[in-house]
């Protein structure tokens, strides 16, 4: 039997309800379009309780981005890609298989990090947080590239990330085959690095 006080459990549950509601609303509609009043109404949590856990809407949005990274970058993309590929190279390519399924889902909502970056702009704290989360995606790709023995993995990851982001934008436009097209280009990118890193590889 848990020895955690009921009040503490209730506080934890309240925080999770707020974050779950904010996650869904922010992912679908962005930051500015969602008000604290709406989050309070949908979550059923008192405004004072919300502010006890999140000092501001910006604080809540930062927590949303962190949860998005946990669920999407590592919990969905990296974890699923590693399950689907027998080698690191296959796991890299499997990212686009995961994307393909994602693009065909009714709840496809594009990349929250890119969305928030464009919405809030790079100079805003939320824009800066989004840039860090996007950088973490590249670190994940660079790690797989290193495991696969691909030269200049950090530079490779930048090019690979362009394919990832580009396919998401294309899918948002309505091209549901974007991930498959990107996967074909990804194979060519791997070959180009294995045959001799493209000009500029390894630069900062």
Give the helix tally: 9
Strand content: under 5%
Distance between the termini: 54 Å
Note poorly predicted spans. none
Mean pLDDT equals: 93
Elements, N to C (H/E)? HHHHHHHHH
Range of helix content: over 70%
Count of extended strands:
0
The SS-based structural class is mainly alpha
Computed over alpha carbons, the radius of gyration is: 19 Å
Explain what this protein looks like in three dimensions:
- The protein is mainly alpha-helical and 204 residues long.
- The protein has 9 helices and no strands.
- It has helices at 6-29, 36-43, 47-53, 57-84, 88-103, 112-120, 125-148, 153-173, 178-195.
- The longest helix is centred in the middle third of the chain and has 28 residues, at 57-84.
- The radius of gyration is 19 Å and the shape is elongated.
- The protein starts with 5 loop residues before the first helix and ends in a 9-residue tail after the last helix.
Features:
204 residues, mainly alpha, single chain
Question: SSE layout and pairings?
Answer:
Elements lengths: L5 H24 L6 H8 L3 H7 L3 H28 L3 H16 L8 H9 L4 H24 L4 H21 L4 H18 L9
Helix pairs in contact: 1-2, 1-4, 4-5, 4-7, 5-7, 5-8, 5-9, 6-7, 7-8, 8-9
Short summary:
The chain has 204 residues and is an all-alpha fold.
């Amino acid at each position: 039997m848990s020895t955690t006080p009921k009040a503490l459990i209730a506080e934890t549950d309240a925080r999770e309800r707020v974050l779950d509601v904010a996650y869904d609303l922010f992912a679908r509609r962005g930051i500015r379009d969602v008000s604290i009043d709406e989050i309070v109404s949908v979550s059923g949590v008192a405004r004072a309780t919300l502010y006890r856990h999140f000092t501001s809407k910006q604080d809540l949005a930062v927590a949303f981005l962190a949860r998005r990274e946990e669920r999407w970058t590592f919990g969905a993309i990296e974890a699923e890609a590693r399950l689907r590929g027998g080698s690191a190279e296959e796991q890299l390519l499997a990212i686009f298989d995961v994307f393909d399924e994602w693009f065909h889902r009714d709840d496809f909502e594009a990349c929250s990090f890119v969305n928030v970056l464009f919405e809030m702009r790079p100079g805003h704290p939320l824009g800066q947080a989004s840039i860090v989360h996007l950088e973490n995606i590249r670190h994940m790709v660079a790690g797989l590239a290193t495991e696969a023995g691909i030269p200049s993995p950090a530079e490779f990851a930048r090019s690979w990330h362009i394919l990832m982001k580009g396919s998401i934008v294309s899918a948002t436009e309505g091209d549901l085959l974007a991930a498959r097209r990107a996967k074909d280009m990804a194979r060519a990118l791997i070959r180009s690095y294995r045959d001799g890193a493209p000009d500029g590889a390894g630069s900062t």
